[in-house]
Amino acid sequence: MSLIDSISLPRSVRLPRVDGLVQWIVPLAIIAIWQIACVTGFVPTRVLPAPSDVALAGWKLLLSGELVRNIWVSFWRASIGFLIGGSIGFAFGLANGLSQLSAKLTDTTLQMVRNVPHLALIPLVILWFGIDESAKLFLVALGVFFPIYLNTLHGIRTVDPQLIEMGRIYGMTDGELFRRVIFPGALPSIFVGIRFALGIMWLTLIVAETIAASSGLGYMAMQAREFMLIDVVVLSILIYALLGKLADSASRVLERATLSWHPAFQKR
Amino acid sequence: MQTALRTSLPETELASRANFAPHARIVREERQEERLAQASGLPLSIRGLRKSFGSNEVLRGIDLHIPAGQFVAIVGKSGCGKSTLLRLIAGLDKIDAGSISFGQDVQPEDIRVMFQEPRLLPWARVLANVEVGLGRDRASKDAHARAEQALTEVGLADKRDQWPSVLSGGQKQRVALGRALVSRPRVLAFDEPLGALDALTRISMQRLLERVWRDQGFTAILVTHDVSEAVALADRVLVIEEGRIAHDVVVNAARPRERGSAELAGLEGSILSHLLSADDRT
Lengths: 268, 282
Ligand SMILES: Nc1ncnc2c1ncn2[C@@H]1O[C@H](COP(=O)(O)OP(=O)(O)O)[C@@H](O)[C@H]1O
Ligand SMILES: [Mg+2]
What we know:
The structure holds two protein chains of two kinds.
Chain A: H1 2-7, H2 25-39, H3 51-64, H4 66-98, H5 100-114, H6 122-129, H7 133-157, H8 161-169, H9 174-211, H10 217-226, H11 230-258
Chain B: H1 11-20, H2 24-37, E1 44-53, E2 56-66, E3 71-76, H3 82-89, E4 97-101, E5 111-114, H4 126-132, H5 143-153, H6 169-181, E6 187-191, H7 199-216, E7 219-223, H8 227-233, E8 236-241, E9 244-250, H9 262-281
Parallel strand pairs in B: 3-7, 3-8, 5-6, 6-7
Antiparallel strand pairs in B: 1-2, 1-4, 8-9
Helix pairs in contact in B: 4-5, 4-6, 5-6, 8-9
């Protein structure tokens, strides 16, 4: 009953406004409980180091410059891989969304390739590129390609045909029609693709760096495992989480800025 | 009103005439003035117009003359081809046979259509949506001013910086009307523009349509399923049946018209009985 009540609240009844700090209460509480559990010995530090130990390990690695170097390497791989895979995916999405011929030529092939999990290619990729930078870039780009491709294509295909007809009636050239009708219409869907792709980007990078790398966060974690440095392992995991969150927030900010016309993003 | 009318010609036309004779430009401008001084509507002649979709013969020979500036309403059963006829007039679809002529060369900006859906760009502010209606003049310096004037005409000047999503259905349709009017069209075709509006909004929109038509003198062609709307607004009501114009009813009532007057009600009744008897026959 109470659940139903809370769902069917009329829009005029405002729930108390949540300000920026509230969302941090739960994570901070978790860290506090975690610290207490470790200090009291409830959780043995061989299983899970205390947050303070993780912070200390982070501080040491920061001083040695190792942390910044590894984060930078991972960040660089992620961005370059994303840019390459994203722009190719976007280009194919545009081409296949706008041209029947192009779609006939490539869409079926791409849909077939999509069914191969890109991480399954790791052994092949190592054979091709060794543990070179290109191996990681290739895997990230491949992983990012499909969500961007599929959502760009979907976005363009679902632009309201009545709006396109309107644009033509009012004498828009092909270029104007793309700039003023088709692209803005496809943008919400493209953003869905970007958010998906960002998730896949980190996942791919973690796996690739763990298996085949001599630098980067994943490599740092694997090295630490060899030397039983569990605090560094946990640190790497937390940094991955943080970077993922940052990438997601950045895309949300961009989305909010470019889709301000969208009812979902309007302040009431 | 004068200031908002288009006073310049396409560059190429001016250039070619300037070569022709030194004083050609002046002559040309005088002609332009003359043209604008006349009623701005265009006459419309349709002869033997046919249109089929596959084996479905929708229009089977339409013959029709509409004098410049007349307000014509087209009624008929759903699916009888009203929208098809309108789209052919607006040049949106290809004619199978027959002809449609406006008595002279027309620019794309001279003929505008308004649909039941407002078809506004959700990602453009109201003013920018109206500017779309300027067609090739979109980039001109006075685009803003002209769009603002059109918005004022439809009574939405204060909404110029809003997103379409915050407007009501009636307001959206008024923006669409502003967009259709901003290029000063000489023929304006409406495809059930008020079909999705509630009764009160619909009546105020009908008044607005009549007012802008009287102010600007374009030729108006209104497709509607509401016979009372047709007799309230139009000089002439056409009934389409089986792909042809089956009845051509003149509405002589003086304007402004009194809604629900005996004269209009009588006409409405007789048009409705035409429509219903056609229904009985099928
Ligand atoms: N693009 C199209 N393709 C095929 N059939 C169409 C198309 N447009 C209209 N028709 C058919 O033509 C007939 C007339 O349609 P329309 O002009 O929209 O009728 P209405 O009088 O209700 O506006 C209908 O039978 C409709 O199914
Ligand atoms: Mg129709």
